[in-house]
Amino acid sequence: MGAVGAPVLVAATGLATACAASEGCTRRVRTGTGVDELVGLGLLYGASRAMVEAIAASVVTVPITAGTTIITEGEPADDLYVIRAGTFSAATRTQGTLRLMTVGDWFGEIGVLERRPRTATVAAETEGELWRIPGEAFLHAMSSLTVLPDPLHRGVTSRLVLSGAS
Q1: 6 or 129: whose pLDDT is higher?
Q2: CA separation (Å) from 112 to 4, 55, 67?
Q3: Is residue 41's pLDDT more than 90?
Q4: Cα–Cα distance measured from residue 1 to residue 17, given in angstroms and rounded to the nearest whole number
Q5: Which of 85, 77, 88, 91 lies closest to 133, judged by CA?
Q6: Given the DSSP bridges, would you call strands 88-92 and 121-124 parallel, antiparallel or unpaired?
Q7: How is the chain split into domains, by residue range?
Q8: More confident residue, 24 or 28
Q9: 69 vs 89: CA distance, rounded Å
Q10: Whole-number percent of the chain with pLDDT over 70
């Protein structure tokens, strides 16, 4: 696992443009609800309540239309995403579809944590909704931990093996 540090801050491919074109397409997550749901995912297991609250305050809800590409393999990583509704596929140019993801799954953490280009392309198979977590806020929370939360560590490890990007 690479060192946790500051992410490259670049707009997510297609997502920022799609949101700018549709007035009011994003909204902030209500902190109380967001904190409880983020804790329940295991993504931030072990982080202090204050740290999870800080991340929840930075989360933006983004509605997504079917067919939208959220992240593109090889591009810089900036944010990570939690699926709130819909079905999304992860694929690489060399291996095709790696997996389908749905409510409660997350993606984009490898590029943020490892400060490396995206290891796969993720696209919406159906209409959906995502929580976009700014990479900088996520890395700040992770820097307070001595080890990555187990669900996060297992997910990163298995995804790197699956994508052949380890």
Answers
A1: 129
A2: 8, 15, 24
A3: no
A4: 32
A5: 77
A6: antiparallel
A7: 15-163
A8: 28
A9: 10
A10: 64
Three-state secondary structure of the chain: CCCCCCCCCCCCCCHHHHHHHCCCCCEECCHHHHHHHHHHHCCCCCCCHHHHHHHHHHCEEEEECCCCEEECCCCCCCEEEEEEECCEEEEECCCEEEEEECCCCEECHHHHHHCCCCCCEEEECCCEEEEEEEHHHHHHHHHCCCCCCHHHHHHHHHHHHHHCCC
CATH T-level topology, domain 15-163: Jelly Rolls (2.60.120)
Instruction: Please answer whether residues 137 and 4 qualify as being in contact, where contact means their C-beta atoms are separated by less than 8 angstroms.
Output: no
Predicted confidence (pLDDT) at residue 62 exceeds the cutoff of 80: yes
pTM of the model: 0.70
| Token pair for 132 | 């976009």
Task: Report whether pLDDT(143) > 60.
Answer: yes
Residue that is written with structure tokens 């959906």 in the block: 128
> What are the tokens at 136?
């900088």
Contact 95, 163 (CB under 8 A): yes
Summarize the confidence of residues 142-147 as an average pLDDT: 61
Give CA–CA dist 27/130, Å, rounded: 11
